[in-house]
Design brief:
Elements lengths: L1 H19 L47 H28 L8 E3 L2 E11 L5 E12 L5 E9 L5 E10 L5 E7 L9 E10 L2 E11 L6 E10 L2 E10 L3 E10 L5 E8 L4 E6 L5 E2 L2
Antiparallel strand pairs: 1-2, 2-3, 3-4, 4-5, 5-6, 6-7, 7-8, 8-9, 9-10, 10-11, 11-12, 12-13, 13-14
């Protein structure tokens, strides 16, 4: 009888406590907007309009650069092509099938499943079932992961694309992985960009990594900050020769300086120029 009396007290207290708590209604969460890539807008200041090209950056000898602005334009033209003409096309081909498939919510992640048939980045052909996942993070970013499945992936599941982005894709980091590389360092491409007032202020693209160490081999880095354009370029060409550019110039009048290397590290020459891009003493 004593036990029943205690149970009754506990029950009454519990019901009273429940009455004091407001009803909890879980607010519905909208799925993240699926990515769509239409290209970026650029302003290269005094360098003017630059048309994208897939041709290689010119390779003057380290001590024979006559027109530094033309060399920098080469770098930026290839950069635009790699981003707008290669990367965005690849992502659009991989993600566009999901636009016709409704997402499903599961454990805090929105999931889209579809068949992926695409000539993907850098000659990789894909004919695989695919699953795209998008989840909101605590930092108000969207975490994207695109998985493919099938014999081509060997393990049955392969992470092809991973990204973190804000909702309007003005601040993004994207990584593409290569299913044909059998080491842990299997990145095929990494890029990040920052857009302010509809114009790119920062853009980085790495298109080749050392499969053993994961260190970047071929990359381009572009930044506009405090009235300056900063451009860095590195690539490994024939016989492991390195071409490297590290330049900084005024966004408005073009006056600037550059360190240029073609070959060994000691084969580095500094160049300075005035607002007419005429070479001057550094």
């Amino acid at each position: 009888m004593r036990i029943n009396y205690l149970l009754l007290i506990v029950l009454i207290y519990g019901l009273a406590s429940c009455d004091d708590q407001p009803a909890s209604i879980e607010e519905p969460i909208d799925p993240p907007e699926l990515p769509s890539f239409d290209g970026l807008s650029y302003d290269f200041g005094v360098l003017g309009e630059i048309e994208p090209t897939d041709s290689h950056v010119s390779t003057p000898e380290h001590d024979e650069v006559d027109a530094p602005e033309e060399l920098l334009k080469d770098v930026l033209a290839v950069l635009k092509h790699r981003v707008d003409g290669q990367l965005f096309d690849a992502l659009d081909r991989a993600l566009s099938p999901s636009l016709e498939v409704s997402g499903e919510f599961e454990n805090g992640v929105f999931i889209w499943e579809y068949d992926l048939q695409s000539e993907f980045y850098s000659g990789i052909d894909l004919y695989n079932p695919a699953m795209l996942q998008g989840a909101h993070t605590e930092e108000d970013l969207i975490h994207w992961q695109l998985f493919i499945f099938g014999e081509q992936t060997e393990t049955g599941e392969f992470l092809l694309v991973e990204a973190y982005s804000n909702a309007d894709y003005t601040d993004s980091e994207w990584t593409i992985f290569d299913p044909e590389i059998d080491t842990e360092n299997n990145r095929a491409l990494e890029t990040d960009w920052y857009v302010d007032e509809d114009v790119v202020k920062q853009l980085n693209v790495t298109t080749a990594f050392d499969p053993e160490t994961g260190e970047p081999k071929n990359y381009t880095w572009f930044l506009v900050e405090d009235g300056l354009m900063k451009i860095r370029f590195n690539r490994v060409i024939a016989d492991q020769i390195i071409q490297k550019i590290d330049a900084e110039l005024s966004f408005d009048d073009g006056e600037g300086e550059m360190f240029y290397r073609l070959g060994a590290e000691q084969d580095t020459t500094s160049y300075c120029w005035d607002s007419d891009f005429d070479l001057v003493d550094c």
